[in-house]
């Protein structure tokens, strides 16, 4: 049974989603704004269940076959030219992919397929049979690799592409909502347990107000808030500036706003509010 | 179809039990595959399960004596003594009936009439060790506003006005957006007769018909 650990605060519906996925042994698809702890979820889950974690980070060039295995034909050719004895067994040149490794584990492992939407649009469709039956066929050695224990599969997506229906049908889905102020306080408590309460409340107010600004291109996320707080804690002058609310410009906003347009927008708003005073 | 079977299997395994919100969460995990549908799901759920907490299926089925014994089991010794002071549970019920007839309008505070927030033995939201809860149909500790009524996912609904984020997504999507799905048809696709019975069974948590606080 999964629940929040010391380092990771999980909401009720997230723990329910994880437990449901474990109970029925189906993959769990997690979506959410960047920086809400999707990848971290798999790491914490592995820690709390005390099992091995296989991480497969998908790039735009990743093919589904790479998760299963790769056949290194070039090495085989080189070895045959050098007269190496290993050439005779084709199994020597099969490099196991993450899925194969996960299937071979004796104890049920966790497989994280990170950012599945980065790959080609057909990528999830290529994995359908493997996800369903947890087995696949190796053409070169004519074996069928079947999972000894069905691994817990966590799939994350940044919503850049729509995932095909056949794939979605085989997974459970959960959307991690952006944490509320109360939940955010708990999360910050985990990372910065000794931050002053006044600074924390003021910083949270500024942060959530910033997220509400219309027209901002990239809303600051949890990880950016944590970084910003870290900077504020180490820099007393900015801390003071934030607490005193002297200037309308947020101190050290470079940690929160990563876009030129956002920065200029905030500066404009600050200027306007100063003028209205 | 597959999702329905999965939901039933999960219910059988006892992943959630007798809790509307948990059931809402579980069904959402199994059935809804994209946050753009979350708002529709909320609406459908609210419409379908409206008022279900008020179903009192145990009302006529359980004998009164049994109810009374159950109730008394939950009282501490002092509460039992206090109850005796007021002449026992039966007496209390009779007095309640009489008071209700006497009282003409809503009342708050005070300690005789039936109302809210006071220390009279009758009413709700108040405090009296041997009081009877009247007119309050769920436990005070449960939140009044249900999660699906909050409509947190309104902005994700694809039929809403296109804002910056939505425009970005639509321009990136390879597939045409689906036509608007009316709420009623969503219900008929996703839910069928079978889970309704199970849902009704689960939904009616045993809430005590009387309480001391």
UniProtKB/TrEMBL annotation, chain A:
SUPFAM superfamilies the record matches: P-loop containing nucleoside triphosphate hydrolases
AAA+ ATPase domain ranges (all copies): 24-182
CDD domains membership: AAA (cd00009)
InterPro entries: AAA+_ATPase, ATPase_dyneun-rel_AAA, CbbQ/NirQ/NorQ/GpvN, ClpA/B, P-loop_NTPase
Domain of life of the organism encoding this protein: Bacteria
Record-given protein name: MoxR family ATPase
Source organism of this protein record: Shewanella phaeophyticola
